[in-house]
Amino acid sequence: MIPARVDGTPELVLVSMRMFTSDRPLARPRGRLRTRLAVAGAPSRAPVTPQRTPVTDDDAATRRRLLPPYKVILHNDDHTPMDSVVQALRKSIPGMSLGRAAAVMWEAHVNGKALVLACPLELAELYQQRLLSFGLSATIERDE
Fold first, then answer.
1. Residue 71: which of 128, 109, 111 has the closest Cα?
2. CA dihedral sign of residues 63, 64, 67, 70
3. Segments making up each domain of the chain, as ranges
4. Rounded to an integer, what distance in angstroms lies between the CA atom of residue 45 and that of residue 19?
5. Residue of 106, 110, 104, 109 lying closest to 71 (CA atoms)
6. What is the mean pLDDT of the chain?
7. The CATH number of 67-142 is which of 3.40.50.1860, 3.40.640.10, 3.40.50.2300, 3.30.1390.10?
8. From CA 82, how far away is CA 144, in angstroms rounded?
């Protein structure tokens, strides 16, 4: 029996639908069925995410003591085009958005240097090496 809402209509949710085009008749699609419906309340195949404990101030203080942060600093370069600097930042630093990369590039251009990010020493060294591989000038300083 399909569970019903308060108003009596069946509770059906469209899970996925893949479109396909072919010269073949629609009566015999290739492969598996292209549409699946999930009934609300029925067991789903969604992965279960484990519960995380909240991060406390003690955890943050311990992490900061064991892995002190270091700043990755990008220095101004008058020879490299600005768009190449933005692309190098986006390729070197995972998750860096276009807007953030452009802001870092502009700060380095105007002020002579810019903070790219602060992270543990090993990651800072990795990001510095990636930036150097693009021909940019980058240094690491300890963050207080």
1. 128
2. positive
3. 67-142
4. 22
5. 104
6. 79
7. 3.30.1390.10
8. 30
Length of the chain measured in residues:
144
CA gap 49, 123 in Å, rounded: 27
User: Could you tell me if 12 and 39 are in contact, meaning their C-beta atoms sit under 8 angstroms apart?
Assistant: yes
Judge contact between 72 and 140, C-beta under 8 A: yes
Going by pLDDT thresholds of 50, 70 and 90, the confidence category of residue 14 is very low
Token code pair at residue 101: 């990369």
Among the residue ranges 10-24, 58-72, 118-132, the one predicted with the least confidence is: 10-24
**What does DSSP assign to residue 10?**
B
Give the three-state DSSP class for 105: helix
Tokens of 78: 């008058």
Q: Please state, in angstroms and rounded to a whole number, the distance separating the CA atoms of residues 115 and 74.
A: 6
On whether the CB atoms of residues 116 and 137 are closer than 8 A, the answer is no
Q: Give the Cα separation of 16 and 1 in Å (integer).
A: 22
Q: How far apart are CA 5 and CA 36, in angstroms?
A: 20
Q: Which of 118, 114, 96, 93 is nearest to 104 (CA)?
A: 114
Tokens 């279960």 locate to 48
